[in-house]
Design goal:
alpha/beta, six-stranded antiparallel sheet, 19 strands, globular, binds 1-deoxynojirimycin, binds calcium ion
Length: about 525
Amino acid sequence: MTGAGSSKPDLWWRKGVIYQIYPRSFQDSNGDGIGDLEGVRQRLDYLVWLGVDAIWISPFYPSPMHDFGYDVADYCGVDPMFGTLESFDAVVADAHARGLRIILDFVPNHTSIEHPWFQESRTGQGPRRDWYIWRDAAPSGGPPNNWISNFGGPAWSFDAVRGQYYHHAFLPEQPDVDWRNPKLRDAMHEALRFWLARGVDGFRLDAVWHVVKDEALRDNPPNDTWTAKQPDIERLLQIHSADQPGAHEVIAGMRKVTEEFGERLVIAELYLPVDRIVAYYGEDLRGAHLPFNFQLIAAPWNAAGLGDLIEAYEAALPRGGWPNWVLGNHDRARIAARVGPAQARVAAMLLLTLRGTPTFYYGDELGIGEVEIPPDRIRDPWALREPGLGVGRDPERTPMQWDASPHAGFSTHEPWLPLTPDWASRSVAAQRADPASMLSLTRALLHYRRAHESLSLGTFRRLASEGDVLAYERRSGDEWTTVVLNLGASPTLWRPPVGSPGMTVVMSTHCDRSDEAVVEMLPLRGDEGVILAGEAR
Ligand code: NOJ
Ligand code: CA
């Protein structure tokens, strides 16, 4: 059993559920086919109805949009495409008035090539000349080392203005800054303060495992298992280009800045193995409050595999480190595309009943699955740079579908990415009216979690089960909740362990079971998950 040692259990983000909004795709308010901040503001009541506690909004800063806003040209502004600082302030004010928290996406690893800092730095003159990672060509010519960009190709580009190479872990239009430079650190900290003073409740730190690189810029070793079916980045093991010890100190520094403003949340984006992820809680837990745990995204979708990874993660957490779980985001195929619509319901029950803060991705509550993107509508720069590998991220960024009006109520204009073919019925309006819909299930799960401390703050214990069944128990004081998930498509039976309390089915992923006492055996249909309330003894 894990979880008893955590301190300060009442922090909002321990109990709460975070909802990720990709602002280009949530709600367009001015008819240009692209979502914006005013659109987010208009939909806040929906989020309250749904039952989430916080929204994390992907970047809306001024940007040339080479990577759709993850190439920031000004850390302290709003791109006109998304609105103005006033529209941002209105989102914060209206969200706070409704009890919703706002988490910003902060991009510390790189700026846009158009950022004034880079424009100054490339001249090789002035106080910002060392704010980026500049190097001469290798003695034999070409880039200074063998590092590869996450989007394919060399992680170095030659700048003719300065006559040197600069490093970019992502696009050439996203030069990496040098966090070893104290002036750069101060400038980034000031940008954080700018938003903290405007009332934001936390930050998700983008690509933060990249912020510090090997000082000697040693070559990365080859990955011997790489094949041409994998993206270029996987050709080398990222030993020296990322996840360096100095990254922890950078995060602790940003966390400290947030604490000047009271209790705020710091989330770290990390694609790393579990033992590396948990190191990002930092020394004495002064790093990220939530180092993102993406394991469910890559997990083998079977009961034993999931059960083992949950237990291993729980066991790896530092004392007092609060867990978190993510099922999908704007960079990975949607859950319904990965496991199918029936298991997507089971996955929602899993995400919302595990111990740890869940991050829920917009549109997953509608069960949006595979969306085919015609070649002429591909927008993701990674897909365009490495075609044919299936790395494109457009399918998980398609617009939210609100109702059956033209363009699904998302816009009055053709949206920047296509809708699902069944958008007219796969919408908030249609699913709200159907008590068995994915939306109704998600909402029921969110509200049940909120009402039951065993599910938010309670301990976790995996229960014995066989075959396709994953079962676990959550407990807080006298409150005793059991979750039993059938990861397979065939009906099955689950026998509660000896010594279990009397149990009643309170919810099924099929939305048709409640108030049903468990007598000896619990029958489960294929792809069914249930929540059981235990009677305290
Ligand atoms: C991670 C973000 O989630 C992704 O969308 C982006 O392309 C990279 N970081 C670069 O900022
Ligand atoms: Ca718009």
